[in-house]
Amino acid sequence: MSTHAWVLATGTARLAGAVALARTVSDEVTVVAVGPGPLADAAALAGVDRVLRAVTEDGQPAEALALQVAGAAAAAAPRLLVSTDEPAARALLGAAAARTGAAALSGVLALRADGDALVADRAALDGAVVQTVSTRGPLAAQVTVEDLTPAAGAAAPITDLALAGSPDVRVVGREAAGTGTGLHDAARVVSVGRGLRAREDLALVEELARALGAEIGCSMPVADDLGWVAKERYVGRSGQKIAPRLYLALGISGMPQHLEGVRDAKVVAAVNTDPDAPVFRAADFGIVGDLYEVVPALLAALSE
Amino acid sequence: MRAVVVYKWARDPGGATVRGDGSVEWRSPKLVAGEDDHAALAVARQVAETGGGQLVGLTVGDGDASWALARGVAEAVTVPDAPVQADQAATAAVLAAAVQASGGADVVLIGDAEEHAQVPTTLAGHLGVPALLGVLDATVVDGRVQVRRAVDGQVETLTVTGPVVLAVAAEGPEGRAPGMKELLAARKRPVTALAFADLDLAATAGLTETGTRLPEQGTARLFRGDPADTARELVAALRTEGVL
User: TM segments (chain B) (predicted)?
Assistant: First the structure.
């Protein structure tokens, strides 16, 4: 069976990675670019065969077009629908899954064909296991992928989708979430979690941040339960999403909600007493140790 | 405005035990409220108060339906025999059919659970309404839903005319558990049971689970031993990477 995949895109973050994953099981990959006009031009360079363009009006979020895009998906009936975890792209995927009768999954890491079945490996139980599932019908897969730079090549042709009658959803305001912190643009971030035993011990973290020229972030319990760090410094799914060159996690267990906030960091390093802490699965480097012993040692090593 | 808040609708990862070979044992077949459910409920109460309407709880599967009734929701609808399914579109189809069977909704609020991230969006698709994710709060102003949500390091305010699904991600654990008085009052509140077989379900392709395994060992280079040595090793590695 020949497989045609649609990748539903509302931004370029991780788009090439999603396309590459779709390509592993598909003969033809189309990106449906829903957003401002230039998005389709960027999508055309992501290694795809075709781009369908749905341009949003000023103040119109991509979600407003989800039902119309889903109608187009039902007409085209692609075997595979893919999105990243970008919220608007997720919304498009769900609408399309419902209209095409596809099975739906999130956290998909890999896809393969097995005869006429599509087989998916997905992260489950907060990343503790990889679950394997298969379907003989259409599949909607929200994928977890790295960002890739697509190989240079000719731009794919762009066709406009004719859409009409979208629901009235409007963006009427925008404000910076992290007022006053330089976290979003920092090249280096030192982040602290429940491994910190007392508020006064933040001084140790602050000293390390100064030595590194880093901003301070934190995981949810430190901002919310304990109130030791300003909420604007919380890094995670409902907090800041950041892309520093270095993210150093101290005493952070690495729950998925937190790790979502740093998926685009260049290098992740972690200090945790538990060698099986989930944070080490996301890290490039780690020290198994107590942050109260390791941070002074890091300060010493940095000054050598 | 009629608001429906969905709770206790999927297995909570905390209820699983992972064995050494990566297979999974669920400690109980009963469902419990998910970690985002309290946040969805808080926003649902706000919508009901500002929209001047009814707030109904919706829950599926085995387990105690009174969780929302103990937290200010006056009535609930349950589908106790709905099966737990790997296919998130199938779960969404059950929820959508139950919303319709119980009288429809102007706003549906549901936890934005990472483990089941396609359920809120596909639920919206089955209902034929837009979905907004990452919602922080929502109110009704002049008959329209005004939503604040976190996106790309900003807080966006949107307005929606017409029905909508709002997926709310919790920023922390529930602040205050209900007391004995609320728990006892919950037992007296009406729960309407719907039979799974009676629901008008959208067809989905279905998924077969073939197993679970442990993830490949992370690529992290772990340094162990004396802190002075491990710190030196980490600093050297980060300098080599060019980030220091």
Answer: none
Q: What does the alpha-carbon distance between residue A275 and residue A268 come to, in Å, rounded to a whole number?
A: 15
DSSP 8-state class, residue A253:
-
- Per-residue pLDDT tens for B178-221? 999 999 999 999 999 999 999 999 988 999 999 999 887 666 89
Q: In angstroms, what separates the C-alpha of B56 from chain A's closest C-alpha?
A: 24
ipTM computed for the complex: 0.90
Q: Where are the domains of chain A?
A: 4-160, 188-303
Shortest CA distance from A60: residue in chain B: B158
**In this structure, which topology does domain B2-199 adopt according to CATH?**
Rossmann fold (3.40.50)
> pLDDT tens digits for B153-175?
788 999 999 999 999 988 777 88
Alpha-carbon distance values, B94 to A71, A91, A186 (Å) = 21, 18, 44
CATH hierarchy code of domain A188-303: 3.40.50.1220
Task: Kindly report the CATH class assigned to A4-160.
Answer: alpha beta
Which residues in chain A are closer than 8 Å to B122, comparing Cβ atoms? 94-95, 97-98, 104, 140
Nearest residue on chain A to B171, alpha-carbon basis: A238
What is the maximal distance between C-alpha atoms in chain B?
Answer: 66
A139 touches chain B (CB under 8 A): yes
Q: Taking 90 as the threshold, does the pLDDT of residue B30 lie above it?
A: no
Where do the structural domains in chain B lie, given as residue ranges? 2-199
